[in-house]
Design goal:
Distance between the termini of chain A: 63 Å
Structural class of chain B: mainly alpha
Radius of gyration of chain B: 22 Å
Number of helices of chain A: 19
Number of strands of chain A: 26
Shape of chain B: globular
CATH class of the largest domain in chain A: Alpha Beta
CATH superfamily of the largest domain in chain A: ANL, N-terminal domain
Helix content of chain A: 25-40%
CATH topology of the largest domain in chain A: Rossmann fold
Number of domains of chain A: 4
Oligomer: heterodimer
């Protein structure tokens, strides 16, 4: 919590960075480059624009853009001038965006010119609200491009505004730096308010824990409308004087590109979520040396449960350390850190608190002993002052200065904490929060749906996945329900599976019993057909190569697998044919360059 | 033109300087331009052949309505071209000895290496195993000066991987300098001085009545010289590539310390044996399901790649039969009693290494002697003469 009389450290810190860091130094390397000099020039020009449009300290401005450079520059300009940024998901449907603008009671909206909801969202703004369209930035335009280029939106307007030379020298410490809505469409939206004091204190912690300095080259491609993308990316890079790398959103096909960026740009830290690590480890034909570049220091894993097996396998295979971080949007980003130091780097835990205090309490609020399971409470300078205009949610979350995380945890003898469950209903799918209430509302809006219950199921890649059960008036295919939801909720919130039941098991209060529904779904899954025999590939290969199946993966090749010589290659061919009753063509045999290839070929043969 | 010359070092240094001075996006093309200039100056026919191959290998499979037949036709055409030059049907000149007699016909510089690179590219294209790339990337791969003249036969995916992660790195550069120096030491000190000058002098000092020992040591000297020279050239090439920020496949990995002939061929001229394993052994075995036939075909291909002659056919069969014997032994091995204890196992390993070493050294007699009678005489001396 912050002292209301204190002053924000940001004006002085940003001015110091502007004065000391080489203007030619790269601040952001994405598809395009943003240098420190250009960043601060734009920040000062935007400050003039804000002043001209009466966006004073305390004003709330929604940013909805797919352009990283725009989002980051606008955010920093707002922090420097005391304006509060409300960063929205640029892929949010119109309905969700409009609700967020209303919930924030926004004084301004800065939105991509091509956003399908731009015109509609403008009407939702309060009277006199500032509306600004954001346009793609192209380094070189031809004559026609220059003639057709936007002259009124951002960044064209910058040339009409001289860099402000009289930026505020001081701002109150409790000035809201940004608001992130963790649930935007329910009747009770929760906008996490983060003050300048919270943000600065936390970035100072992060930069110290991770060892960020002007030589830091941080690769963080997480979405900027999440705190882990927003704070652990541009804000950490800025205050350390380092460089942020954002090679576009992650995809499996992009693993090779990620490896290229890590090597070519001498990345020192990769900030990512466990799902990305799982995909790299399980699905990608990833280069084992991708982190052994000589410059790389460690991976920061956050925003989700890091499976202990994945953690160990990944570190073993890639020869790099993973720092497992626990935190919430309400604590800016992190709070507990398993690593990078040896003392806190304990597998299966979230490590130890840094610059904050922890307690584990029972239902009555009594402190529990090590080994006992209870709710994890946090207190520190980075904890939010509350939810925006939501006293009920604030008083429920913050009691006596302690943030009730809703997570069930335990502490071991070494002082390391581990998360064992959750009191809250939120589903964390690949690091992204999915709110069951929101999914239920979307499902129930379909005229044929009587009731809906959404819950999480364990998933080896996403950590958790979204599943739903529904009861219907008349039969309708689950795929039609998913299509219906697609226009109402963000893609990551869509259920991976929907099960139709005649009725729900209900508790005394009439609420669906989620555990019974989960059991039903898991039982239905277990009765599904057995996994395809292609999984046998590894067992057969292990026998042929005289090694352990545990040492083999889709990335195993003759070059990196002892025992896979040309003789064993034919043994494998014959063994696969005998065991699986398939016939491999010469082209198949020649194409078996890795076990991933073998699995793919075998699966294709079995399907045929 | 010798790699052991100030002239070549000048090309090396100039190439490295120009390469790093160029903007990063076009460096590989600058290197290709330098390589083309080098070939144009020293081997204009090679410059033309390689340029034509580059265009055909890239565009023919892409523009042809039936890519597979086009690829195989192209592979056959490259093999035919290689055979024609190696058989002397085509030639661009001749090398003479002091008496004016023709020692050998001259073929386009580096053809044996870049022909195999082109075939590799075409077959990987057929398999759909190439990473996404542009024509300019392929040009950069083919016109890669460090490996243009004497290998290693590096692979396109490895080149593309390095190109996509390319950057300046002082450690890599330093390692490159070391490897170049190491390569020159191997060629000059171990090859030219020790194996070609000192060792013959030592052998000449042995009592002539110990003819078997002399014949054996001469085969050993020949084998060591081949190894030092070729490994030295490979190290210079690998070092040169490192100076440009590229890692090229290793070509030798302590081959004379291997425990069996299969291991030997995985550590001797690795880029060629790996190429033949992928594009000769695998197709033959994939079609026939006969690993013995695959081994013989592979060793014959390796032999004929060196020289189209009876002595190399015999040399290939010798090694092929050696691998077949080892494969049969592997099958029989589980039925044999296990050696227990460190002493027995140590002796077994030492004996295996000695057997493999001598098997390889004796094979050099096949290619060392100028004529068949000389070769037979050398074997007779080693096996029946006085030690």
């Amino acid at each position: 919590m912050t002292d209301s009389d204190a002053l924000s450290p940001f004006p002085a810190a940003l001015d110091r960075i502007e004065a000391t860091v080489d203007p030619q130094r790269i601040f952001l390397q994405g598809e395009q480059v943003l240098r420190y000099g250009d960043l601060f020039d734009r920040v000062r020009r935007l400050a003039s624009f804000f002043r001209a449009r009466n966006l004073a300290p305390g004003a709330r401005v929604v940013i909805a853009s797919r352009d990283d450079r725009h989002v980051i520059t606008l955010l920093i300009a707002m922090i420097r001038t005391g304006v509060t940024a409300v960063v929205a998901d640029p892929a949010a449907p119109a309905d969700e965006l409009n609700k967020l603008i209303r919930a924030a009671d926004a004084h301004g909206l800065m939105i991509d010119a091509g956003h399908p909801a731009a015109a509609e969202a403008r009407d939702v703004l309060r009277d006199g609200g500032v509306f600004l369209t954001l346009h793609p930035e192209e380094e070189r335009r031809g004559l026609l491009g220059r003639l057709l280029a936007d002259k009124t939106g951002y960044p064209a307007l910058l040339k009409d505004h001289a860099p402000a030379r009289d930026l505020p020298g001081t701002l109150p410490d409790d000035t809201r730096a940004y608001i992130l809505f963790t649930s935007g469409t329910t009747s009770n939206p929760k906008g996490v308010e983060i003050t300048h004091g919270n943000l600065f204190a936390h970035i100072s912690t992060l930069n110290r824990v991770y060892g960020y300095d002007p030589n830091a080259r941080i690769l963080n491609q997480l979405p900027l409308h999440h705190t882990d993308g927003l704070v652990e990316g541009p804000m950490c890079a800025l205050l350390s004087g380092g460089t942020l790398y954002r090679p576009g959103p992650f995809s499996i096909q992009q693993i090779g590109t990620l490896a290229d960026w890590i090597a070519r740009h001498r990345i020192t830290h990769l900030v990512t979520v466990p799902t990305v690590l799982a995909l790299i480890e399980r699905l990608g034909d990833a280069d084992r040396a991708m982190f052994r570049t000589g410059d790389f220091r460690f991976i920061v894993s956050l925003a989700g449960y890091l499976d202990e097996g994945l953690w160990r396998r990944f570190e073993d295979r890639f020869g790099t350390r993973i720092v497992n971080v626990y935190g919430l949007t309400e604590t800016v980003s992190g709070s507990l850190y398993a690593g990078p130091d040896d003392a806190s780097h304990r597998y299966g835990t979230i490590g130890k608190p840094v610059d904050c205090e922890c307690r584990i309490v029972d239902e009555a609020g009594n402190d529990l002993s090590p080994g006992q399971v209870g709710e994890l409470l946090l207190r520190g300078p980075h904890v939010m002052p509350g939810y925006f205009r939501n006293l009920e949610a604030t008083t429920e979350a913050l009691r006596d200065g302690w943030l009730h995380t809703g997570d069930l945890a335990t502490m071991d003898d070494t002082g390391c904490y581990a998360i064992v469950g959750r009191k809250k209903s939120v589903i964390i799918k690949g690091g992204i929060n999915v709110y069951p209430e929101k999914v239920n509302a979307a499902l129930k809006s379909h005229p044929e749906v009587v009731d809906a219950a959404t819950f999480s199921l364990p998933d080896p890649v996403w950590g958790e996945t979204v599943a739903a059960c529904v009861t219907l008036r008349t039969p309708i295919a689950p795929s039609a329900l998913i299509e219906h939801c697609r226009s109402l909720i963000a893609p990551e919130s869509l259920p991976a599976e929907i099960h139709v039941l005649p009725e729900f098991p209900r508790g005394p209060a009439g609420k669906p019993v989620l555990n019974a529904l989960k059991s039903h779904v898991l039982k239905a899954r277990s009765q599904a057909p057995a996994p395809d025999p292609a999984a046998e590939v590894y067992v057969i290969a292990a026998r042929c190569f005289k090694t352990s199946a545990a040492d083999l993966s889709p990335a195993s090749t003759p070059e990196n697998t002892a025992g896979w010589d040309s003789y064993a290659h034919m043994e494998l061919t014959n063994a696969l044919e005998c065991a699986l009753g398939i016939r491999l063509a010469p082209k198949d045999i020649m194409s078996m360059g890795s076990l991933g290839d073998v699995e793919r070929i075998v699966r294709g043969k079995l399907a045929a | 033109m010798s790699v052991v010359s100030l002239y070549w070092l000048g090309w090396l240094a100039g190439t490295v300087a120009l390469f790093w001075a160029a903007p990063s996006r076009v460096r590989h093309l600058v290197l290709a331009a330098i390589s083309l200039a080098f070939l144009t100056v020293h081997a204009p026919v090679s410059a033309v052949v390689l340029s034509v191959l580059a265009v055909l290998c890239f565009w023919l499979p892409r523009l042809s309505p039936r890519p597979a037949p086009a690829i195989f036709a192209m592979v056959l055409a490259i093999v035919a071209l290689l055979v024609a030059y190696k058989a002397g049907i085509l030639t661009i000149g001749a090398a003479f000895d002091d008496t004016g007699a023709v020692v050998r016909l001259v073929m386009p510089l580096g053809l044996s290496y870049y022909a195999f690179r082109c075939i590799h590219y075409l077959l990987e294209h057929y398999k759909g195993a190439l990473p996404p790339h542009r024509f300019s990337d392929f040009i950069g791969y083919l016109f890669f000066l460090p490996t243009l003249l004497a290998g290693p036969i590096h692979r396109f995916p490895d080149y593309q991987h390095d190109l996509s992660q390319h950057r300046w790195d002082a450690d890599t550069f330093s390692r490159g300098l070391e490897r170049v120096l190491y390569g020159y030491a191997q060629i000059v000190i171990l090859g030219n001085w020790f194996a070609s000058t000192k060792l013959p002098a030592l052998i000449a000092g042995i009592d002539p009545s110990r003819e078997a020992l002399i014949a054996y040591l001469d085969a050993l000297r020949f084998g060591l010289n081949v190894y030092f020279q070729f490994a030295g050239y490979s190290n210079v090439a690998i070092g040169f590539a490192l100076l440009l920020g590229f890692s090229v496949i290793e070509n030798f990995d302590w081959p004379f310390l291997r425990r069996n002939i299969s291991e030997f061929w995985r550590s001797w001229h690795i880029s060629l044996s790996g190429w033949c394993r992928a594009y000769v052994y695998m197709p033959v075995v994939a079609v026939t399901r006969n690993v013995q036939l695959g081994a013989l075909a592979t060793m014959l291909a390796i032999a004929l790649w060196h020289e189209l002659s009876l002595r190399y056919v015999l040399w290939g069969l010798y090694h092929g039969l050696g691998i077949v014997a080892w494969q049969l032994f592997q099958r029989a091995k589980p039925a044999l009693p296990m050696l227990r204890g460190p002493v027995a196992q140590g002796l077994a390993v030492g004996g295996s290494v000695a057997l493999t070493f001598n098997f390889v050294i004796l094979s050099f007699v096949l290619i060392k002697e100028a004529t068949m009678p000389d070769m037979l005489r050398a074997y007779a001396t080693i096996f029946t003469g006085t030690w």
